[in-house]
């Protein structure tokens, strides 16, 4: 893995998100100094990127079109996802008093770890946009890949940015994973008419 | 002085994709078809919207329904009617397809589409009770994707109380569509006037109006549509164009051009989607 990612890690042509995804333990410390001067608006750029991905992909998947109206209304509709992610992130960051950067910078670094889920959405939604009945179950099952990948990034974030112990990183990561999936599944159950809808038919 | 970065170029590609999609986007206008004394309306009575388990908000959905060649559609989220009421209220502010408020009454033993209702129907009761509640509100009750898995429809008396059944529903396999057809045949034997319904069950994949219902309404209004379903004056059309319903009604539209999706600039539309997608990939991977 290290051999494979070394050319990317040493190149400045690739995004910070890709560096974080491939080598979080070395990338976060390198970014900390640079982000010590992050101000409010600059801290919004990575969440804005996540929202852009969702807002473009949602209409692409649902109606095979992208227009400014569709993108704007999708952004408006789905911005609550970002709000929830931000609340979860603030909770994790606030739980570590020894963090090495201010809150805004920590949030910026937190959202630098969004690449696994963004890539998963790009692939899954992109394929579903091309087929009227995409392999939905396959993509939902494949979500385990970004889930595990993100957990690795979050654990590294806790150790290197928040300055926690390895144990502290573990339990914060566990709380994050459980919290995010509990919220996501609760929304799906609410929208689908009940928890029984999430169970296989009997 | 340095040139634009790969990320900036990728952002421009995203903008180009969205701009292309916006430039070619127009909502088609449709003239209502007539067949004898009836208006023939293309409908989709099983559509999910956001907030809920649909990807599109009600104000976007109506435009998409027009793009899909629909004259009428019903918003039917699971076990709640808030989004449907919002969609109906918004529809009053502009021209476009008729919007009917509804609910997919969702119970482990049955799924039932209720349209033309005012209040949420309790889903924790047997299907017969839910159908009675729908009728009490002046609505119509339609069996949703009825497969043998749903034992709520095992009872003949319950089936007889239905106003319609989804004879056409998007199916991944031929056997699935055959189950819907078989249920429709059973229901028609028990109640010859039952309305065949074609619905897309739209959530988040590009399927709106993939299956549709042709409604023979005396007037192009919500009450006209509800009355037509209650009287069984519908034809269900499946994803392959096969029609289910009264041969006399099928004969009435034999020479009419079937309503369909307007996609005059498909290649440009696909280009805009591809540009936006590739641009996002670039923005994520490059600095």
Describe the structure.
Chain A has helices spanning 2-9, 16-22, 24-34, 45-63, 68-94, 103-111, 115-130, 136-142, 144-160, 166-192. The mean pLDDT of chain A is 89. Chain A is mostly helical. With 287 residues, chain B is an alpha/beta fold. Chain B is 37% helix and 21% strand. Chain B has helices at 6-23, 58-67, 82-91, 127-136, 156-161, 174-190, 222-230, 247-252, 266-285; strands at residues 33-35, 38-47, 72-75, 98-107, 110-115, 140-143, 164-168, 195-198, 212-217, 234-237, 243-245. In chain B, strands 1, 2, 3, 4, 5, 6, 7, 8, 9, 10 and 11 form an eleven-stranded mixed beta sheet that branches. In chain B, α1 packs antiparallel against α9 (266-285). In chain B, 52% of the residues are buried. The chains are: A mainly alpha (202), B alpha/beta (287). At the A-B interface, α2, α4, α5, α7 and α10 of A face α1, α2 and α9 of B.
Keywords:
heterodimer; A: 202 residues; mainly alpha; 73% helix; B: 287 residues; alpha/beta; 11-stranded mixed beta sheet; 9 helices; globular
